[in-house]
Amino acid sequence: MMKETKIQAQVTSTIAGDDGEAMAKSEENAKKKAPEKPNEGLEKPDDAGWYVAVVRVNCETRIADSIRINLNYNHIWFDYWIPKVKVVYIDKRSKKRRVKDKLFLSTFIFCNVSPSQLDKIRFRSDVYKMLTMPGQRKIYKIPDQVIANYRYFVENDEEPVTAAPVPLKKGIKVRVVSGSMKGVEAYVQSYNGKKAVIGSEIKYISGATLTISRNLLEVIEES
User: Mind listing the pLDDT tens digit for each residue in 54-71?
Assistant: First the structure.
């Protein structure tokens, strides 16, 4: 049975500007000429990396799709990820348990694209900004492995995940040795009997924690 995931309230970013009429028309034209399937006929560039676009809350998917359509129309490879979790709720009419997707982090679009194409994203009227390193102007590039670990945490269907708005503790480093999260690395936050709370985070953005059986973990010896 799927366990319910609890998402803590988070502070959202400043609202980005409205789409203008010109952008709407441009997007319609791009839709007609862009590949029917995302990135069809396009090759992922060797220098593609993960970057974060900040947009209006509850518009993440629409804007991400718009970015993809426009870039694909211009023969540019682009992929994205919007963190969502599956939550269980009771349908008011049927009284049955249902499952739906819910945003885990709002206002963020994780963009996988060549750094040479970042200006085509950050200068859109519906993108508030691209995240940068604190105190720097350089756009923040997130390592592939960090994204992969965090994504396994958020999208696992065995244990409920909680967003961690503060930096995680760098406790004992462990690896999950069994189950759908096998191979994922994390840091132990606390122990509770036969259970352990482990966490993964994307630095400067957010962490995620979940509770897991201690016998599913092995310690990673760090040099």
Answer: 999 999 999 999 999 999
* Cα separation, 179 vs 197, whole angstroms: 16
Strands (E), 20-153: 49-55, 79-81, 84-90, 97-103, 108-113, 127-130
125: tokens are 């009227």
pTM across the whole model: 0.80
How far CA 120 is from CA of 23, 26, 114, 176, in Å, comes to 13, 14, 11, 39
91's tokens: 């349908």
> Do 39 and 78 form a contact (C-beta atoms < 8 A)?
yes
Partners of 163 in the beta sheet? 208
Residues found in the chain? 223
Three-class secondary structure of residue 66 per DSSP: helix
Close Cβ partners of 84 (under 8 Å, ≥ 6 residues apart): 101, 102, 103, 104, 154, 155
Distances (CA, A) of 99 to 3, 105, 106, 154, 162: 10, 18, 19, 15, 17
Q: Is the pLDDT of residue 159 over 60?
A: yes
> Dihedral, CA atoms, 170, 163, 153, 177, nearest 10 degrees?
40
Q: In what order do the strands lie in the sheet with 49-55?
A: 79-81, 108-113, 49-55, 127-130
CA nearest neighbour of 105 among 168, 171, 55: 55
